[in-house]
Amino acid sequence: MASRRACPYHARPRQRERGRRNQVVSIRVHRLTKSFRTRSKQEGLAGSWRALWKPEWRQVPAIRDISFLMERGEALGFIGPNGAGKSTTIKILCGILHPDSGAAEVLGQVPWQDRQRLCYEIGSVFGQRPQLWYHLPPIDSFHVYGAIYGLDRDATRRRVDFLVDVFELQHLLHTPVRKLSLGQRMRCEVAVSLLHAPKLLLLDEPSIGLDIVAKQRIRDTIRYMRDEEGVGVLLTSHDAGDIEALCSRVIVISDGQLIFDDTMDELKRRHLTAKQVNVRYLEEGERSLPMAGVETVAASRYGMQIRFDPRTVGVDAVISGLNGLGSMVDITISDPDLEDIIGTIYAENALDPDTA
Fold first, then answer.
1. pLDDT tens digit string along 240-250?
2. What's the confidence (pLDDT) of residue 2?
3. Is 20 in a helix, a strand, or coil?
4. Where are the domains of the chain?
5. What is the C-alpha to C-alpha distance for residues 34 and 26, in angstroms, rounded to an integer?
6. What CA–CA distance (Å, rounded) separates 47 from 68?
7. Nearest residue to 72 via CA among 237, 233, 249
8. What is the pTM of this model?
9. What are residue 200's phi and psi, to 5 degrees?
10. Which CATH architecture fits 69-269?
């Protein structure tokens, strides 16, 4: 009987287990911390002169002790107010920045140690950092990036043809980037980030500055690539519509700290504290609904809009009360927008002394 030591199957059980975990985990972050050294500004002319020769420095925390996992092929929304640490986290995961402490793995590799190898497996889009050459048409940038990623000409051509078809770029390929609209440029930016068929796409504000139509086209194409090729998506955005359209799970970060990590449905369930009702009546008149937990948002001669807390008063009781105010012609009950829910989370966190 072969010994356990001699048998390759038993040789490195921990390494085999780590390999199995890495097959299903795209990103593993554990107690990641990063701060930046900034110069303290002193008041007055004397203070400015003193700071010139003996500057005082202070450490400003960007992210503080955050941990999370992201599975292969998952679409994860990473949201927070300005200065919360979203872009810093993305840059660490790309290998651009080094953390002060903590650990991170992206597709089984440490980003700041294996950045060159990792670049062949991830794609990234920074809304305010273009990848395309400004004075060249997109088709030239596609071929340059194909060579950088080691694709031969036939492979590059096939991949470009596929992406051009998916992103509908046929009429944009030979126009210099400087002459494209912002929405057209962003479609090309996302397309070039997918040229090498990455397993993971890191998107930092991909729809910033776009109009509604352009945003929807970007969302549709990213969703298509996610579904067709199994590309994992880590998305940071201030646009709640991007998060709701693309992500099934949400992480909320505020002041460098992770304050929520769960599904989109759970986010709404836990923080959905109000419902909105719009009602129209047949008869003209002034109306109000004096019930606990009910707030009148707007009123007109033939209708009103109210908001109520379903934890305080039931839907049936509200409808019954509205029905007693006259003959209803139309009534709609809706939940608040995701943007309002996220704003509520930020406000609650700002008032919570334990998160300061």
1. 888 888 998 99
2. 37
3. helix
4. 69-269, 273-334
5. 21
6. 43
7. 233
8. 0.74
9. -140, 135
10. 3-Layer(aba) Sandwich (3.40)
